[in-house]
Amino acid sequence: KLLFLAALVTVTVLLLSRTTRPSQSSPFERRPTSTATSATTPSAEGSASSGEGAGADAGAAATPSTSSSSAASAAPVDAGASPTQKPRERPPVVYSLSVVEEYDHDPGAFTQGFLHDRACDEATGACEDIFYESTGLYGETSVRQVDLKTGRVLRRRNAAARHFGEGLAKWGDELIQLTWQRPTTLVYNASGASLPLIREAKTDLKDGWGLTNDNASLIATDSGHTLYFLDPKNLTTTRKVDVLDESQRVNYLNELEYVEGEVWANIWQTECIARIDPSTGKITGWILAYNVWHRELVKSNTLGLLHEMDVLNGIAYDGATKRLWITGKKWSTVYEVEVRVNENADLFNARQRCIV
């Protein structure tokens, strides 16, 4: 009996030791690293919890890798994530504008398209900064060449009263003007003494709003949330991309400008400019132009034009000098501006203001 009891106690102890033994680590659980590796990665957990943006970048920079094995062991693991889950994308950056200079603008111009160029004298080689501008409204639609410094209209071509002008782009020696709620496109000779109309053409879009180009394609919008890339020769769509802020559609993409690899778009009925990655349609930033809009509001009121002033709608960029200008429909002024990161801006509030 004593031998039997001793054997029973021994078996019980063995069973208990097996049931209380720590289980093997989960494949998502961070394994301990060697002392040497831990010493070179003091901020691994900190960089994992800091999320996106500057904190994540700082964590990565503070974790130099000397070998592939040490990098693998030091990498933080999200215990709640799927091993195939993609990392979260960076949220849009919020920007504000500061005014550099003001230039006169025809307050009767219902600006729909706006771009910068240079007019050069063949005899002297001297060049002057100009804008090409498309104006809208039935019976008031035109294409203009405007002197930047004075706001004086140098050349102008009025369109037939049946057309309501929209976005404008320059392709070679031609100015291409979209029209509202129609596929009709008006093509002008940019070198002609009076910007003569060359022809009427058609896109495969049902509506025309904004227009720019990336030196390979024309890029158009039609009031929705899509960028259409058009073949400049026949104006047919070669590809398109939806514009999203995370999963939310960004509608009413209006006047466009191609700026350093991005498409910048006025959002109709707001004081916002969207910065768009044209390859993905992702919003990379929001430019808040409320201060410039308010400045124009005060000026228009002083000039007795407050009842005429309409929305922000006009972006022009000079890639050679990195200068940027904005204006609006029936604004008295073109504003040269600089874009700055707004450290105090709240992204949620920016989205509330800009996504309509």
The helix content, as a percent range, equals 10-25%
- How many angstroms separate the termini? 86 Å
Order of strands, main sheet, comes to 16-17-18-19-1-22-21-20
Helix count? Answer: 7
Shape descriptor reads: globular
Query: How many DSSP-defined strands?
Result: 22
Question: The biggest beta sheet, please?
Answer: 8 strands, mixed
Radius of gyration based on Cα positions: 30 Å
Low-confidence stretches: 1-81
Q: Please indicate the percent range of residues in DSSP E strands (runs of 2 or more).
A: 35-45%
Order of helices and strands: HHHHHEEEEEEEEEEEEEEEEEEEHEEEH
Oligomer: single chain
Q: Structural class, from secondary structure content? A: alpha+beta
> What is the averaged pLDDT score?
82
Report on the architecture of this protein:
This protein has 356 residues and is α+β, with helices and mostly antiparallel strands. The protein has 7 helices and 22 strands. Strands 16-17-18-19-1-22-21-20 form an 8-stranded mixed sheet. Strands 2-3-4-5 form a 4-stranded antiparallel sheet, with no helix packed on it. A hairpin with a 4-residue loop joins strand 10 (211-213) and strand 11.
Short account of what is shown:
It is built from seven helices and 22 strands. It has 356 residues and is of the alpha+beta class.
Provide the descriptors you would attach to this structure in a database record.
about 350 residues, alpha+beta, 8-stranded mixed beta sheet, 7 helices, 22 strands, disordered N terminus
